Amino acid sequence: MLRGFYNAAAGMLAQQRKQEILTNNMANANTPGYKADNASLRTFPTMLLQHMGQTEINGNKIPNNYPVGILSTGVYVQETTPNFMQGDLRETGIKTDLALLQGQVPADPETGLPGELFFRLNVNGQERFTRNGHFSVDADGSLVTPEGHYVLGTNGDPITVTSDNFTVNKDGQVIDNGVVAGQIDVAFVANPNNLVKEGSGLFRLEGDGAAASAIGNPAITYNLQQGFVERSNVNTEQTMTEMLTAYRAFEANQKVLQAYDRTMEKAANEIGRIG
């Protein structure tokens, strides 16, 4: 009986965690460049039940073991993985807004999945990546994110302009007062599974290797659109449906848990009084 009790509780915890992930996706449905998270549910290792008994033949006890069946031990959220699908572009008309439109990129030889392109940032001396191109110009003339993180150029330094009245061509060259002020670096991450979300649209690259530059790579095509931002790739209708499904699954496990609780209460309070 207790096994079913714990299985129902594990199901409730898994659906609660999934609901939190879906809620976070809905909250960022209007965040530029946001990549929705997907929850992967997995079952705990199954158990093979076997009857343990003995049969007495001619005074000899012979083991009489036979398989009963497989018992599931519950479910859990194994991992959350971002969905890097390209979001739609929204025109803002603001000079400092940039949208990264990804084209052809090579596939990772290990996973077989295509890599991803990002803006390269300097966050407190650490390299970070983002698809949120809602930038601005700070007091020093540097191109920065809303949190004040520097947007890096191909030389590894921040992009500096004299005002926000500049132009950016499709290759990322920043032209300020007729002079090329630099070129925005576009980072290529071969295996996006190594990226970890840090909040505020930032990603950190873990594991061996570093992100290469997409600049000058003939196998990579992209296009920077000035005056546009990339929308979140959250599908609000699908997310709402999944939230309702997760709630119903949580509710069903809750009713099973309550049924087990009533049965255990009856066994303790009523059956225990017999005799």
What does this molecule look like?
With 275 residues, the protein is α+β, with helices and mostly antiparallel strands. Helix content is 22%, strand content 35%. It is built from 2 helices and 22 strands. The chain has helices spanning 2-27, 236-269; strands at 37-43, 47-51, 54-57, 60-63, 66-71, 75-82, 89-91, 98-102, 116-123, 126-130, 136-137, 143-144, 150-151, 167-168, 173-176, 179-183, 186-189, 195-199, 202-205, 212-213, 222-226, 228-230. The strands form 9 sheets. Strands 9, 10, 13, 17 and 20 form a 5-stranded antiparallel beta sheet that branches. Strands 14-15-16 form a 3-stranded antiparallel beta sheet, with no helix packed on it. A hairpin with a 2-residue loop joins strand 9 (116-123) and strand 10 (126-130). Helix 1 runs antiparallel to helix 2. The radius of gyration is 28 Å and the shape is elongated. 25% of the residues are buried. The mean pLDDT is 87.
